[in-house]
Amino acid sequence: MLFIGCHLSASKGYKAMGEQALAIGANTFAFFTRNPRGGSAKAVDPDDAAALCGIVSEHSFGKLVAHAPYTMNACAADENIRRFAREAMADDLRRMEFTPGNYYNFHPGSHVKQGTEIGIELIADQLNTVLRPEQTTIVLLETMAGKGSEMGRCFEELKEIIDRTELSDKLGVCLDTCHVWDGGYDIVNDLDGVLGEFDRIIGLDRLKAVHLNDSMNPLGAHKDRHAKIGEGHIGADALIRVINHPVLKKLPFILETPNDIDGYAREIAFLRENFSE
Ligand code: FE
Ligand code: FE
Ligand code: ZN
What we know:
Layout: E1 3-6, H1 14-23, H2 46-58, E2 65-67, H3 79-96, E3 103-106, H4 116-130, E4 138-142, H5 155-163, E5 171-176, H6 177-182, H7 191-201, E6 207-212, E7 214-215, E8 226-227, H8 236-244, E9 252-255, H9 261-273
Parallel strand pairs: 1-9, 2-3, 3-4, 4-5, 5-6, 6-9
Antiparallel strand pairs: 7-8
This protein binds fe (iii) ion (2 copies) and zinc ion (ZN).
Zinc ion is lined by residues 176, 178-179, 224, 226.
């Protein structure tokens, strides 16, 4: 069974996302836990969250992959920005427990001229502050394109963050195909080699989800501009190999391609047609 979905709007609540997922042939999805560019978070309606959990179990969805706001920067130079990141993540993780046992993906952050060493330390500090032994949510570090001073541009940086986090059993990695490609990992010509490197450095047991995107830019561009499946430099064939790869094929795949909801439905159908059990 291919677990495939896309980003859905949380504006009408949890149950509405589950229904929309069903309507477009998705059996997982991503959603922002709060305004992706701001800070506000709506209170969770427990009945609404329970209704989504009902849909998820009735239709055997894969793990959901919530996304932290883009404004969260755990390794900012400004203490106020770091405090927001800490408080928002702690609050999001409490809210995630209304839909227990899923994933919460975040961008490690940008070190803004402080250097990667400080960046790694500050991100691990934040995780050591907010992770709780009793949480059922696994927090995913997203592989990043390495735009500007973005952290998580290589597997080594993610590994160091994981190693410095006490409750590292609560951590995993979400591999974004556009980002790793932009970061210089050749998933088109050497997917096995890239996954082998991931395994040697981080360990494949940490790999929990995939953001499935094409890229508008060539290998190693460090740009981070997503393209529709088959309309970028990665191409449909390589992305079809990604969803069918034996070490990846059971993971939840989330589309973050520039599409409206009908476009997502078409990409989901296309990928299902090209998936072999
Ligand atoms: Fe992301
Ligand atoms: Fe992504
Ligand atoms: Zn991106």
